[in-house]
Amino acid sequence: MRFPAKGFSLYAANRRVEEAISNEEQVKLLFHHPCGIQVWIDHLAKPTDKWASIIEDVPITTSSRITFMPTGVHQVEAGEVLASGIGHDNNTYLDFGVYDLRKKNALAEMITNEWPEYRSTADYAICWSTFFGPEIQQLLEALPAGAIDTSDYCQG
C-alpha cells in the first residue's frame, strides 16, 4: 500500500487484533495535511520497517481506539510504501477515507439524524476518487460497479 499524496504527516494510529476474524494485526493510520485534509487508511498488514518503528509504542488492542502522534513529526512522501499487505491473509480489503475538516459535507444533517455515532468523521467525508486529480478520478470512475458508484459521498 502506497500513500497517495504529498505534504501529509501522521496524526494518529491504531494497532489491533480482530479476534473474531483472525489473530493478524491490523493497522489504521490517520494522516493530516496543514490545509485541513485528513486521509484515513485502515486494515494495513505488515507495515514497513519505518512505519512499524514509528508506531511500535501504540498499544495493540481489540478496539478501534486511536493513539495520537506528535503533530508534524512523521512525514509521509507521495508514493511511499506504508505496508506490504492489506486485510487478512484469507480476505484482502482496505478502508480508505478522505476528509475535508474545513467544512461539513452535504450529508451532515442526514448523518446527524440517521447515523449519529459517525458524526465526528462522516460529517467531513468527501468522495475519495476526487482526491487523486481529474485523470485518476476518471480512471477510478470507469471501473466496474463498486465503492465509488455506491458511496453516498460520490453521488453527483
Could you explain the architecture of this structure?
With 156 residues, the protein is an alpha+beta fold. The chain has one domain (8-154). The protein is built from 5 helices and 9 strands, in the order βββαβββββααβαα. β1 and β2 form a beta hairpin. The two termini are 28 Å apart.
Characteristics:
nine-stranded mixed sheet; 30% strand; alpha+beta; single chain; 156 residues
Helix content: 10-25%
Radius of gyration over alpha carbons? 16 Å
- Binned strand content: 25-35%
The main sheet comes to: 9 strands, mixed
Query: Which regions contain 5 or more consecutive residues with pLDDT less than 50?
Result: none
**Which structural category fits the helices and strands?**
alpha+beta
The structural domain count equals 1
Give me a quick take on this structure.
19% of the residues lie in helices and 30% in strands. It is α+β, with helices and mostly antiparallel strands.
